[in-house]
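Subgroup meeting minutes
Present: P.N., E.W., G.H.
Scribe: E.W.

1. P.N. recapped why we're keeping a running log of single-chain structure predictions: easier to compare across weeks, and new members can see raw inputs and outputs side by side.
2. G.H. added today's entry (514 aa).
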Amino acid sequence: MNKIRKILRLYDQGKGKLTIAGYLDLSRTTVRKYITAFDTCGLSLKEVDSLGDAELEELFGKVQEKRPSLGSQRMQTLQRCFPKIERELKRTGVTRMLLWEDYMKEFPDGYQYTQFCRYFNDWLAKVNPTMHRTHKVGDKLFVDYAGEKLSYINKKTGEVVSVEVFVAILGASQLTYVEAVRSQQKEDFISACENTLHFLGGVPSAIVPDNLRAAVTRSHRYEPTVNETFEDFALHYDTCVLPTRAYKPRDKALVEGAVRIIYTRLYVPIRQKEYFSLSELNVAIWEYLAKHNNQLLKGRTYSRRMQFEEIERKELKPLPVDRFELKQSFHAKVNKDSHILLGTDKHYYSVPVRFLSKKVKIIYSASVVEIFSKFERIAIHKRSKVPHAYTTNNSHLSSTHRYSAERTPETFVERAEAIHSDVLTVIKSILESRRHEDQKIKTCEGILGLERKFGRDRLAGACRRAMDYGIDVRVFKTIQSILENNMDSQRENVFSQDLPMPSHENIRGEEYYK
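Output recorded in log:
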């Protein structure tokens, strides 16, 4: 009697007979009989609702749907076939039509195809019940690859290149992102996930991938091992990874449904045209994807995009300033020159001298090389791809090697400038001369070293006098001789004065002082 009342209420609300039959799991014939009886009885819905069950039964009579008894021999035979049918349907290429044909060959008096499918669906609903899950806004992003591939044509070779299709969908708003990538490898997978987050303009609380190798190193029902690089990606974006259970497609039913939808809304129009690069293919995908996200949901007055903008965008966490850099790692032994070799680029990087001959871990990205020893970062360098070259931080070297490494023209100029302008003039003249680099270094080092013995003022004066003779190959000995032979007080008094330079370059030193 409750079903009769529901039929009449839905009919009064303007629902069609087919819709009512679907809602109440009745046949259209049964629904039509009760509606016809209601139309001919002359009573209003309110008057019918006021009748008791006995009165309602008397008014409408017993109209029951004829269903086969579960105890009938034919139904029992069909029920025994269902477990095998369920297993066979999991195989590639097996359809219900093929299984029904096999069933009819074995049981010629069995049910026809429509009833066969109907009873099989009823059995599935009982043995495999589903649960409706309400997703929280900003909570989960489901990611997966479509089973079917797309392709583009290589312009140079004419080769048809097949590509994978990455699909991601937010749980609450169902906003969808699709991108064609070259493979399911770790680099392409993480890049697609990062592009998804920037497409959304924020970060959800969790990313839910399938158990593919790029995301999960080892699957487990309770604590799966997440790929180290993908976990670093999640930490960079302040989110977590929640892999689904292996062989449990219902854990990611939302993205499975999204894949089925894009087969119709994206694959069909895209396959009608030719594309000549991956980027060109993705432009077409995103064009149709925008239409998909902006299309109103069935039976609703809003689209995925509208729902996302209204309820979910503000719940996403903000994106970090920098994008994630994919990192690689391996182990190496520190050479005796306090450097390690990054084999990928054949480039050498320095580490502190105390780690000589020890094994270290190298983690490098496109721009940075980091070196670790027992979880402690001992060195960091900008990545250089110049082969057989060295990147050295002088602080990593021993004191002897550091002093040798720091003997550069720049350091000589800085030291001379700190002493006196006359010393700076001499040093610059030496560095600009045509002598061999080693000669320049030794001469500059010797002149600047005289400051410790004779002081700044006397060295500056000696440099002024040395310029009278010209800056030649023996300039160090000239300055040293001036300092050592000019010890009497009279000459020191004259030496400390800022005398004007002689007007004639050929005047000898003794005549100048006279």
